[in-house]
Specification:
single chain, 193 residues, mainly beta, Porin, 8-stranded antiparallel barrel, 10 strands
Length: 193
């Protein structure tokens, strides 16, 4: 499934890069009515999984995230407000010394509000710095095969983040985010339409 998603994103990116034109000078990269979707991987976690625990060590896999952002309110100070959402999944596990596994999986589903600065549009219309907040739900499933214990919880989650996109062409770019929703650092590709 991961290979299929990666192949689809690469194909969409190549198609977009070959069929679009560059943005006109001075056009802000994110305005009212703009849409952006992003696919990213994330690193870092809120737990300390680097330490040895009961004769075993944690393995934390990168999160896989999908987000959408829609330009909703223009000219709010020097920027545009966007509303969108995110879905992300993160898996972590450790192996007991006897070979049994303890798995801990998180899925977040949330609404994101973003503020995109347009101060630099005249100088560099491809660069889109932004910050935002997240409000959503985290679905966490833990399965301890050694103790034969499986638990699932759903609870509210919040997050703050800052990020920036760089649009190589009008409809395609890359982005990075720092903050926390499911990972501390995310990097990915975005499509704009």
């Amino acid at each position: 499934m991961k290979k299929l998603i990666c192949a689809a994103l690469i194909a969409a990116g190549i198609t977009t890069m070959t069929t679009t034109t560059k943005a006109q000078g001075g056009d802000p990269p994110f305005v009212k009515g703009s849409n952006s979707i992003g696919l990213s991987i994330g690193f870092g976690d809120y737990y300390d999984y680097g330490s040895v625990y009961y004769g075993s060590s944690w393995t934390v896999l990168p999160s896989i995230n999908f987000h959408f952002d829609h330009g909703t309110i223009a000219e709010v100070g020097p920027g545009t407000i966007g509303i969108g959402g995110i879905v992300g999944i993160k898996n972590r596990y450790y192996k007991y010394s006897n070979g049994d596994k303890y798995t801990d999986n998180s899925i977040i589903v949330g609404v994101r509000g973003t503020y995109h600065l347009t101060l630099l549009a005249d100088k560099n219309n491809k660069f889109d710095p932004y910050g935002g907040v997240l409000l959503g739900a985290r679905i966490r499933t833990r399965n301890d095969h050694y103790l034969d214990d499986k638990r699932s919880n759903v609870y509210p989650t919040t997050g703050l983040f800052v990020g920036a996109k760089y649009n190589f062409v009008e409809n395609f770019g890359a982005f990075a985010e720092l903050g926390y929703d499911i990972s501390f650092f995310k990097i990915g590709l975005n499509l704009n339409f």
